[in-house]
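Let's sit down with a protein and look at its sequence and fold side by side. We need material for that, and I hope you will provide a protein of your own picking. Once you have written the record down, we can walk along the chain together.

***
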Amino acid sequence: AERRRIKQLADKINRLVMEKGCDKWFLASDRNIHNQLLDNLNPVVKAKLKKNVAANLTKTDKSKIMEYFV
């Protein structure tokens, strides 16, 4: 069940990046799913990934989130 949800999330990311024509994007995901998520991304989408952080930032103050990506 968890693998299926990770695949679904990767599929949604693939669609979003392709539909929006992103030339670069950033990702933060929990360490527990990070590698599986990356493995399920489309190679074209993955190539546009400029920064990825293996951390759950859901409880991080919004003003601090960008610090993880610069």
Remarks:
- The beta strands are 25-29, 49-54.
- The radius of gyration is 12 Å.
- The first strand starts at residue 25 and ends at 29.
- Residues 60 and 66 are 10 Å apart (CA to CA).
